[in-house]
Write a structure and sequence with these properties.
This is Helix-turn-helix domain-containing protein. InterPro entries: Cro/C1-type_HTH, Lambda_DNA-bd_dom_sf. The chain has about 180 residues and is mainly alpha-helical. The protein has a domain at about 1-75: 434 Repressor (Amino-terminal Domain), CATH 1.10.260.40. The protein is about 60% helix and about 10% strand. It has ten helices and two strands; from the N terminus they run ααααααααββαα. It has helices at about 1-15, 20-30, 30-40, 50-55, 65-70, 75-85, 95, 100-105, 140-145, 145-180, and strands spanning about 110-120, 125-130. The protein has a two-stranded antiparallel ribbon with strand order 1-2. A hairpin with a 5-residue loop joins strand 1 and strand 2 (about 125-130). It starts with a helix and ends with a helix.
Length: about 180
């Protein structure tokens, strides 16, 4: 149950806007303490209606709870629906093993403008996905940004990445202290 709780918590933290534990608990009609127990995996030794309600609230498919308990990954309902509608155009979470926050960002509103693979030394590659503002066409978005602006944005991102990692670590430590 700890794996399930961790996956549920990770999904909540990856959502934008990120719901608080209080907001999530209110949405599924449980106490914050009960939600914390679900996220720690200590709420019950079996899957309860509250756990299934929390998974639904986070956008998981009905099968995702059982998939996670069996060692697999959850699937977002929206991603599953899109995959069924046009399997050639969607990412298979099982095949790609993408974190839910990445799948959600890719499938969010806004045109897919471009992608890039940026080598990070010999052992890694960064995948960059450029999304446009919702409602704008790809041509409108491309026309509004010059190559120099895009390269400047990429360079700014490269320089900021170490700082983002530090913020992420600080935030995780702060969250862990709050959850304790």
């Amino acid at each position: 149950m700890a794996r399930l709780g961790a996956a549920l918590k990770a999904t909540r933290l990856a959502r934008r806007p990120k719901p608080t534990q209080v907001e999530a608990a209110d949405a599924i009609d449980v106490s914050r303490a009960n939600l914390q127990s679900i996220e720690r995996g200590t709420a019950s030794s079996k899957v309860t209606p509250a756990i299934r309600a929390y998974a639904r609230y986070l956008g998981w498919t009905p099968e995702s709870v059982d998939r996670v308990l069996a060692g697999g990954d959850p699937e977002l309902a929206r991603a599953a629906e899109a995959q069924e509608a046009d399997p050639e155009q969607r990412i298979s979470m099982d095949a790609a093993r993408l974190p839910l926050r990445v799948v959600d960002a890719i499938e969010s509103d806004g045109a897919l403008v471009d992608t890039a693979l940026i080598p990070l030394g010999d052992d890694a590659t960064m995948v960059l996905v450029v999304k446009g503002r919702p409602g704008a066409t790809v041509d409108e978005i491309r026309a509004s940004a010059t190559t120099e602006e895009i390269l400047a944005a990429l360079e700014a991102y490269r320089r900021s990445r170490p700082h983002l990692r530090e913020l992420s670590t600080d935030q995780e430590q702060s969250q862990a202290a709050n959850d304790a």
